[in-house]
Amino acid sequence: MKNISSNKQKILLLLLAGIGLALARSPTRQYRILKELRRDWLVIDEKKLAEDIYSLYRSKLVKRIENADGSLTFELTELLQLGFHEIQKSVCVFPYECGDEVEFVIEFFGMRPYARYGTIARIDNDFHLRKIFHLPLES
Questions:
Q1: What pLDDT shows up at residue 97?
Q2: Cα separation of 2 and 74, whole Å?
Q3: Which member of 9, 53, 73, 133 lies 3.0 to 4.6 Å from 65 by CB, making a disulfide possible if both were Cys?
Q4: Is residue 138 part of a domain?
Q5: In total, how many domains does the chain have?
Q6: Average pLDDT, the chain
């Protein structure tokens, strides 16, 4: 089933589960089928998620660098192309909420001990950043 899309796998899974439920003679067996259906359904979603993340990794959006001391550095290499602005080495800003996306990448690549994400209420170069992001200037 490796070459079958996630949606097709779900359709086949539902069809097979329906056949299994129809042939099962006891409620215990039907319950077991439903339990396995749920587990398999989640596996399909996890496979799709993994495929999407690895395509992100292959697209070089996230770059893993092994340092001489054995530590790892993760660089979000395409942030500038995605509209982020680097205000300091390895410190980027973006004018809109993107916390969920950043947290997802941090968790998936195991960068929690090394990465920080924050929301800024005020910054001293607000005027300059508003011009960069083409946002209305406050009067």
A1: 82
A2: 30
A3: 73
A4: no
A5: 2
A6: 75
